[in-house]
Write a structure and sequence with these properties.
The complex is a heterotetramer. Chain A is mostly helical. Chain A contains seven helices and no strands. Chain A has a single domain, classed as Up-down Bundle (Four Helix Bundle (Hemerythrin (Met), subunit A)), CATH 1.20.120.80. In chain A, helix 2 packs antiparallel against helix 6. The N and C termini of chain A lie far apart (about 55 Å). In chain B, the strands form two sheets. Chain B has a five-stranded mixed β-sheet. In chain B, strands 4-10-9-6-7 form a five-stranded mixed β-sheet. In chain B, helix 1 packs antiparallel against helix 2. Chain B starts with 12 loop residues before the first helix and ends with a helix. Chain D is mostly helical. Helix content of chain D is about 70%, strand content about 5%. Classes of the chains: A mainly alpha, B alpha+beta, C mainly alpha, D mainly alpha. Chains in contact: A-C, A-D, B-C, B-D, C-D. Chains B and C meet through helix 1, helix 2, strand 7, strand 9 and helix 5 of B and helix 3, helix 5, helix 10, helix 11 and helix 12 of C. Strand 8 of chain B pairs antiparallel with strand 2 of chain D.
């Protein structure tokens, strides 16, 4: 009954991959098809509508590039946290995770300013095909960043007490995936003209 | 087989009916065979016949045959059906015979409207004949239809012609039919298109060239055409809603 | 129906609403599914009455206006597939059986499991709420093609459409969580000694179904987001006048929608495999071949989706490709059925209720399968698409899947779930009272379909060819048969609840079966196994030569 | 479980990889300044793929993970590819066999820009 005690089922590992990491991989796989479907729809519409390039030219490449830098750096922190966790340095891992989450916050803040500017210039989600996809893709990705931050802070608070250290790697994996999605969103939304 | 249930009034109706019969024969054989074998086994191997159960893994060569041979036969049947299906499909949907006449078919909530050239034989001239819900065509004449939709997805279906094609907003889809039997037949909408879906009926009248010419004359008066002309924009819900409620 | 024997009784809320125990969650899914099935059945009753006796007052509902008819048809489809077939076949049986069959104490992630049910329950509530909002429930068919579904001015049920979409999206999330949990559990938490080919077929099928669901549903989740924005934020993803394309939704929907058929079919096939093996006292014929065919079906089902769109305005050249793949999928699926039939050979068959249901599944599903060929081959689909022939075809697949095989499963595992046997006589009455009317419902619809009856039409008054009396007689016949079939379901309900108290106690292994769930007490205590088992052999070792009894449980060493 | 987690990777010099990624990012941004369409696209997407590979390999340790994990991810991508192949002929083109999408401004250009299956 008590949900805190782990069932034996959770501790077994017939594949040799701990269940926590295994389920993370499956979550990432399902995210791949979600983002994949959305990106595929965007790409085929975009190729079919050369005129969307005009709208795309309004996006701020430098803001996008800086956000990429932010995410790459936060990914570095995440993987350093994983290293620390493997060395059983829970508090250090927690510190690095909080740093990662901070990166996510910075990312979202920059995005917020970008969107404020776009909306101020009158480019809202309903002002044309490109803008609809621009806000949908970036918005869905932003939601994943937000969710990642929340989970990360929870994991960090456990890790600080040297508990559940295996979760540090899992949230890291998820974060890197979100990073990779952005690595593709950046050229798709900011560079392709 | 299909004609016992519904008349066939276009040139390609019979090719569809024949394909239907071919498939029915093939799958019918397999269905009966499988059901017979299954029930035979059930009754033959009932526990009350006192026979103890046998230990069979299904790897045994002499038993596996009973799976692999039918398996191969199914494959052959599939190929036959595929060839039939694609050839019929190609003749109806891909291969376009030269058109004698062209008619524009427009779906909207919840009516079919048609536009065809008037006596001058040219489309988009003032004497064009626009009609709602009723399409008059000449027998033994190859028609191309340009199918479009004003609002939602509709489906232009003439069961007697074995003709069906969805009308998508934003697209013009071209198809063809060649009526070969006099009479009046139903036009259906077979794609859920909202409240009045069941009211979206039409008639297609296949008539002799003489009758058709007479009909052209009667209806080619531009004034009448103007009266029957349709709203360019999607109809507002209220009017059609009231219509649907009657 | 206490599942925690040696535990202090927790509060009602914690026991029935907040439990992380896989058996309780399974029951939650089962009962939610049964309630939704009753609602879906009532909706079927409503529109069949309108079909059989047009424009008459329907007892318990009232007059069926076009708007109500559309909503009822749409909701029947949505509920029966997403809120009955999925939760019962995958979630209920999966939750109850996976840990028991692979010999562990619970799912790998019990709290994710609980969360999945809670999201599912929420989705069901949201869907039912849509009946109450202004404009009524969504009526644009369960496929929800835009622009009809995306534009309030067209569907006239703006609120209902949004709620419908939200409910479906939530349901997808619930089953993503549940399915991933199943997959991880089976991959990692198997009992020592249980190798890949010692896993019972049902577990294989449920896991493969979950994976299939996971890979196919992603694009539709994305598509649902786009549709939601079209509905609520006036974007134009599916609006052709603004660069969008309504066909995109159709593709995204069917890219999921077709695999979905197999997502529910596979668990059904799994249940039938278990039942047939037990009551024929036979090893499943070609266990590995069954798995290979399943994988083949799984892959092929991902590349056939556009056969739902042959006449939907896709490029006609594409139809040829999809026609070929569609017919190819018949090869593994027929082989699978052949293997099941071959399993009967050389057996010692007893026809208890579960076996009747299992055989009924094979017999009826064969009809559903072969009629699919007519629709899968592009040529005949031109005529039969969206007629009642299609409706009859997929009910000949979905009723065996979601009704017949589920009854096979419930009657088979009821003793394990509740510790008591169901009544055999009532069970047999229920079986014949369901299967015979089922055929009488849908065989007439094959005929009206070939005669040109199109679907989702509340009255054929406008269509001269369709309002012939002969066709109306067939529709009425079908409706009456439905009434009979629904009436017989009360026999099952009575049997189900009466036996909870009064059935004779089952014992651990009433069917003398080999799989692990039968080695624990019925109902299994919290934690399932007193001593976690070790597996020594495959799941279907019946009639092994040189043994005293004719079955060898997986956990008994030689 | 942590013990297994330790067992399964040795940690490379992450800062070095991060530096490479940043360098690649700069290149792609500079490349986007070019006016040759091909250069822009290669700079954008070619480099994106390289970056994704570096992250997956070095940060996510896909290379030392059990074989079937990368296979699983690749299969998911494969299905998205199939989806694209099946859908593009209808969505990416605005003219096909016996159908045309007149609403779109330049059907010829976008139609020619792509091939049919």
């Amino acid at each position: 009954m008590s949900s805190s005690a782990k069932p034996i089922a959770n501790t077994r590992s017939a594949t040799g991959i701990p269940s926590a990491r295994l389920i993370t991989w499956w979550v990432i796989a399902s995210e791949i098809v979600i983002f994949g479907g959305l990106l595929a729809s965007y790409v085929m519409h975009r190729i079919g509508h050369p005129e969307w390039a005009e709208a795309a030219s309004h996006t701020n490449t430098w803001a996008g590039a800086f956000n990429t830098l932010v995410l790459l750096t936060s990914s570095l922190c995440a993987v350093m946290a994983h290293k620390a966790a493997d060395a059983h340095q829970g508090p250090r891992a927690a510190k690095l995770l909080r740093l990662t989450a901070l990166g996510g916050l910075l990312f979202l803040t920059i995005k917020g300013f970008e969107w404020a500017k776009d909306i101020h210039e009158g480019f809202v989600i309903s002002s044309g095909g490109f803008w609809s996809y621009y806000y949908t893709l970036a918005g869905l990705h932003g939601l994943h960043v937000l969710a990642g931050m929340v989970i990360m802070l929870v994991v960090a608070s456990d890790a600080a007490k040297n508990e559940e250290l295996q979760r540090v790697e899992c949230i890291g994996l998820y974060w890197h995936f979100v990073d990779i999605v952005w690595i593709f969103l950046f050229p798709l939304l900011y560079i392709a003209r | 087989m299909l004609e016992r249930y519904l008349t066939a009034a276009s040139t390609y109706a019979h090719s569809i009916d024949h394909l239907f019969i071919l498939i029915a024969a093939i799958v019918g054989f397999w269905l009966i065979a499988a059901e017979t074998i299954m029930f035979t086994l059930v009754f033959k191997f009932r526990a009350k016949n006192g026979r103890p159960t046998q230990y069979i893994t299904g790897e045994e060569k002499h038993l596996k045959r009973w799976i692999t041979i039918p398996h191969a036969m199914v494959l052959v049947c599939d190929v036959v059906i595929i060839i039939g299906a694609i050839s019929v499909w190609y003749n109806i949907k891909q291969n376009m015979p030269v058109a004698d006449e062209t008619v524009r078919v427009i779906g909207q909530q919840w009516a079919w409207s048609f536009q065809q050239a008037g006596p001058d034989g040219v489309m988009d001239t003032p004497d064009d004949i626009r009609s709602v819900g009723e399409l008059h065509v000449k027998i033994n004449t190859t028609y191309h239809f340009e199918l479009m939709s004003r609002d939602v997805v509709h489906s232009f279906a003439v069961p007697a012609f074995r003709l069906k094609q969805d009308a998508l907003p934003g697209r013009t889809i071209t198809g063809w039919f060649r009526p070969n039997r006099l009479g009046t037949y139903d036009i259906q909408c077979t794609q859920m298109c909202g409240l009045g879906h069941a009211l979206m009926a039409g008639r297609i009248v296949v008539e002799t060239p003489q009758d058709h010419a007479a009909w052209l004359m009667r209806n080619s008066n531009p004034a009448a055409a103007g009266l029957q002309a349709l709203p360019a924009s999607p109809p507002d819900g209220t009017l059609t809603l009231a219509e649907a409620r009657r | 129906m206490s599942t925690q024997v040696e535990h202090a009784e927790p509060s009602f809320f914690h026991k029935y609403m907040w439990s992380t125990d896989h058996k309780m969650i399974a029951k939650q899914y089962l009962f939610t599914g049964m309630v939704m099935a009753m609602i879906g059945g009532f909706l079927a009753y409503v529109f069949r009455m309108q079909q059989g006796f047009p424009n008459q007052y329907v007892p318990g509902f009232g007059l069926v206006t076009p708007g109500k008819y559309n909503a009822v048809v749409t909701m029947h489809g949505t509920i029966m597939i997403f809120w009955v077939a999925m939760p019962v076949l995958i979630a209920a049986f999966g939750n109850f059986l996976i840990p028991l069959m692979i010999g562990c104490d619970d799912m790998a992630f019990p709290r994710i499991n609980r969360l999945s049910y809670q999201i599912f329950l929420l989705s069901a509530i949201v869907l039912l709420l849509s009946f109450l909002v202004k404009g009524g429930a969504f009526g644009g068919a369960w496929t929800a093609y835009p622009p009809l579904s995306s534009t309030g001015a067209y569907n006239l049920t703006p609120a209902g459409a949004v709620l419908w979409l939200l409910a479906v999206a939530l349901e997808f999330v619930a089953f993503l969580l549940g399915g991933i949990n199943f997959t991880v559990t089976v991959m990692n938490s198997r009992a020592p000694g249980m190798k890949m080919y010692d896993i019972p077929i049902l577990v294989w099928m449920i896991v493969l179904a979950s994976v299939l669901f996971m890979v196919s549903v992603g694009p539709l989740i994305a598509g649902a987001v786009l549709l939601l924005f079209d509905q609520t934020m006036s974007t134009g993803f599916y609006d052709p006048t603004r660069g969008g394309d309504p066909l995109l939704w159709q593709h995204l929907f069917w890219f999921f929608g077709h695999p979905e058929v197999y997502v529910v079919l596979l668990p059904a096939m799994g249940i039938v495999a278990e039942v047939v093996a037990v009551f024929a006292r036979k090893k499943v014929f070609g266990y590995k071949t069954v798995l290979y065919t399943t994988w083949a079906v799984g892959f092929l089902s991902m590349v056939v989706w556009a056969h739902h769109q042959f006449v939907a305005g896709i490029d006609p050249r594409m139809a040829n490709i999809f026609s070929i793949t569609t017919l190819m999928i018949s090869i593994p699926i027929t082989e699978m059925v052949f293997l099941y039939i071959a399993t009967l050979y050389g057996g010692s068959i007893t026809l208890d209720t579960p076996m009747l249901w299992a055989l009924g599944f094979i017999a009826e599903f064969l009809i559903g399968g072969v009629t699919g060929i007519f629709l899968g081959s592009s040529g005949t689909d031109i005529y039969l698409h969206d007629t009642y022939f299609l409706v009859a075809h997929f009910h000949y697949t979905f009723v065996p899947i979601a009704i017949i095989s589920v009854f096979a499963g419930i009657t088979f595992w009821y003793p394990k779930m509740f510790g008591r046997m169901l009544n055999e006589t009532l069970g047999k009455i229920h079986f014949w009272g369901t299967v015979i009317p089922f055929n009488v419902i849908f065989i007439p619809l094959f005929i009206t379909g070939t005669a040109g009856d199109q679907r989702r039409i509340y009255s054929y008054a406008q269509f001269a060819e369709q309002s012939r009396p002969a066709l109306q007689h067939l529709r009425t016949t079908s409706t009456i048969a439905l009434l009979v079939m629904l009436a017989f379901q009360f026999v099952f309900l009575f049997n189900f609840f009466w036996s909870l108290r009064n059935g004779k106690t089952a014992g651990d292994n009433p069917w003398r079966s080999t799989t692990l769930e039968w080695t624990v007490p019925s109902p299994p205590p919290h934690g399932n196994f007193a001593v976690l088992p070790t597996v020594y052999r495959g799941p279907y070792e019946y009639g092994l030569p040189g043994r005293a009894d004719d079955f060898a449980p997986q956990n008994v060493p030689d | 479980m942590t013990t297994e987690a330790e067992a399964h990777v040795h940690h490379p010099n992450y800062v070095k990889i991060w530096a490479i990624l940043v360098a690649l990012l700069l290149v792609s941004v500079l490349g986007s300044m070019s006016h040759v369409r091909e250069v822009v696209l290669i700079a954008a997407f070619g480099i994106a793929i390289v970056k994704a590979y570096l992250v997956a390999r070095n940060f996510m340790h896909v290379n030392v993970e059990k074989r079937w994990v990368p296979y699983l991810l690749i299969v998911c991508l494969l299905f998205i590819g199939i989806l694209f192949a099946g859908v593009a002929p209808d969505i990416m083109n605005h003219v096909g066999q016996h159908w045309i999408n007149p609403v779109v401004n330049q059907p010829a250009v976008s139609g020619a820009a792509t091939k049919n299956e």
